[in-house]
Amino acid sequence: MIYGRPDPQEEQPVAYCDYCGGEIYPGDSAYIPAEFDGMLHADCVKDWLYETYAWGLGVWCEVSCSGE
Question: Does the predicted model carry a pTM greater than 0.70?
Answer without folding.
Answer: no
